[in-house]
Structure formats: structure tokens, C-alpha cells
Specification:
Blueprint: H1 2-10, E1 11-12, E2 15-16, E3 20-31, H2 33-36, E4 44-47, E5 50-69, E6 75-94, E7 102-103, E8 106-107, E9 113-117, E10 122-133
Antiparallel strand pairs: 1-2, 3-6, 3-10, 4-5, 5-6, 7-8, 9-10
């Protein structure tokens, strides 16, 4: 039975599914400057109590962006002088089975929440883009 389940999961159109390299970008909005410094290139992501095959490729920290209502009722784009936005690029390999992509123990889709979570920090962000690289 276990062999049959393995075959069904890994055999797509007559061959074993190969792991694809995935790169995706996550925006973690409006965090304190000291928290923005916690995410570093090379950090391994964690799910539950184990490390995952997802690594932080790069991190860019910018002033926090927001849209606020001015006193006259108009909408105004502003950058926050204190809070920061963290743009995190993550990468890893995974087997894409069916209509989902799972990275670091989480399903990824553009617009979906993603927890950028390592041994020492956890930030909630939104997936902004996904690139599936040909091997």
C-alpha cells in the first residue's frame, strides 16, 4: 500500500516528478526598525520544530509605505518615518504535486500570507511574486 501511495504521488505522466527550484518574494510591512534587522540572507526557514529546505536569498529594508486619509478626505501616499517594510527573497526546491506549491511547510500563492520564520524570529508577510525555475 505504501509503495502504491508513493507511486501515485511521485509518478506524473510516466516519470518521477523532479524537484523544481522556486524563488519567491515576500513583503513584511510596517515593522519596527529593530525587528527589520532580524532577517538576514542565509537564514533557514523553520516549520514546527524542524528546518525546511527554504533559505533567505536576499533582504531589502525600506521605509514603511502607507496610504492615509488627509483631513480634507483625500487619500495620500506616505512613507512612515519610523516603521520599515522588509522585502525578503526566499529560495528552495520542492516537488510540485497537483495544483499547489509548498515551501517551508506552507502553501505559496501570490497574495497569500507567508510566515518568514527562522529559529529566532517570525514575521507575517504577503507573497508578492513566485518564479518557478527550469532545472
Amino acid at each position: 500500500m505504501a509503495a502504491g501511495a508513493y507511486y501515485k504521488i511521485n509518478n506524473k505522466q510516466g516519470g518521477i516528478a523532479a524537484a523544481k527550484e522556486i524563488e519567491f518574494n515576500v513583503l513584511v510591512p510596517c515593522v519596527r526598525p529593530d525587528l527589520a534587522k532580524t532577517v538576514q540572507a542565509g537564514d533557514k526557514m523553520v516549520a514546527g520544530d524542524s528546518y525546511q529546505a527554504v533559505t533567505v536569498k536576499s533582504v531589502e529594508v525600506k521605509p514603511g509605505f502607507g496610504v492615509y486619509t488627509a483631513s480634507d478626505g483625500s487619500r495620500v501616499e506616505v512613507t512612515d518615518p519610523y516603521l520599515m517594510d522588509i522585502f525578503v527573497t526566499l529560495e528552495g526546491k520542492t516537488v510540485i504535486s497537483g495544483a499547489t506549491i509548498n515551501m517551508g511547510g506552507q502553501e505559496i500563492r501570490v497574495g497569500r500570507k507567508y510566515f518568514v520564520k527562522s529559529l529566532t524570529y517570525e514575521h507575517e508577510g504577503t507573497i508578492m511574486s513566485i518564479t518557478i525555475k527550469d532545472n
